[in-house]
Amino acid sequence: MPDDSFAVRRPDGPAARPSALPPRVLLVAQSYWPEPAGSAPMMTDLATAFAAAGTETTVLTARPNYPGAKVYDGYADGNQDRTVVAGVTIERLPTIPPAGGGMKARLIHEGVLHAGFAAALMRGRVSRHAAVLSLCPSIFSVAMADRFRAPGGRHIAIVHDIQSGLAGALGMGGGAALKAIRAIERTALNRADGIVVLSEPMREVLRELGVTRPITVIPPHVDADAVHPLPRPDGQPPTVLYSGAFARKQGLDQVLDMAAHLRGLAPEARVLLRGQGGIEEELKAKTREMGLANVQFSPLAPKEKLNEAMAEGDVHLVPQRPEGAAFAMPGKAVTILSSGRPFVATCLPGSALSVLEGQIGAFLTTPPDEPRAMAEAVASLLNDPDRRIAMGRRGRTWVEENASRQVALDRYAKLLVGDRG
Question: CATH no. for residue 290?
Fold first, then answer.
């Protein structure tokens, strides 16, 4: 296939220092490096950006476990509970990773972790800060982060997932449990000084939930210097790539159905599913049952190989369950755009990705649970390398202007010092 690369790489750094930057910042988040999927990469990049700009940066987080069901090797014994990586002081707490993904397992995981956060504050392991960032999920991280804010300081809650909405959409928990989660979300978020969401639909959902605090939309960001366009590897077949967690909310069943249709539309193409998670064995079993010889599985690439791994995809996939599209914004979409590759996403009209498609023309969307339409969109891109190159350029330009780490750092810094402009 032709080379999909183009004039590469406008470096994202070293960046100009934001006009206002807090001298110290604390990030409270259950997900962080070395977790390779979910919110961890974005939050890791934000923390390291603050540290690189001269802010004394501390992260309070869990021993790494996502997207698997156990703490990573080398972390379970606590020997790495206090480390400094890329200028960021990382304080880790024990947890019980949620096996199976059900509501009860998640509550145990989050309860153990956040009890540890409270103990860390009581014992002085982590002090109060004038500038605090918290990440939802988990909403308990947001509630706990408020206690780490020093008098007169500011706490900004970053909402990547609206947990009550996702839980309800995915059928997790009963009505009483969902009502309780909504109440916790409303209370915790209304105690923050400001809230960041990833899309306009997410802001609307929070307003409907009863959140009254100022809400700012900042899209997912990426280190555009670390993830940039590369040539496709020589000798590989046309490749359709999904990279991320194997979880219910991704809607990966429709990817397997898409692969079945793609066999007739692009027989030479392979569908590479790169990741891990709670439904991995289920996906592999279904692949065997369907006889999908064009589907391959591989582990997530390590962070230092991410850029090369992204280049393997001629077309990337961003599947979503339609019920949860208003409650989360897939950060992987921005990483794909930064790599100069187009993707095909499943979403409903009016969702965040649907709106962005019309604005930048760098990817395609198809209705959820219509695998034939998804396969046709993928095949149309595989068969038109010039179109892929043009879409890749538009996506990369949009990232540099709207979703680079420098843009994000400047906007978060202004929120932490009280400037919402």
Answer: 3.40.50.2000
Cα–Cα separations (whole angstroms), residue 273 to 87, 308, 360: 33, 16, 26
Domain count, the chain: 2
Query: Considering the entire predicted model, what is its pTM?
Result: 0.81
Q: Quote the domain boundaries for residue 54.
A: 24-221+404-416
Q: Check whether residue 193 and residue 268 sit in a common domain.
A: no
* Residue 170: pLDDT over 80: no
Query: Distance between terminal CA atoms of the chain?
Result: 46
- Range 361-388 burial, b when 16+ CB lie within 10 A, else e: ebbbbbebeebebbbbbbbbbbeebeeb
Q: How many residues are recorded in the chain?
A: 421
| Complete DSSP assignment for 181-241 | HHHHHHHHHHTSSEEEESSHHHHHHHHHHT--S-EEE----B-TTTS---PPPTTPPPEEE
Q: Please tell me the distance from the alpha carbon of residue 33 to that of residue 37, in angstroms, as a whole number.
A: 9
* Dist CA 308 CA 313 (whole Å): 10
Residue indicated by tokens 């599209």: 325
Evaluate if residue 255 carries a pLDDT over 80. Answer: yes
Same domain? 208 vs 349: no
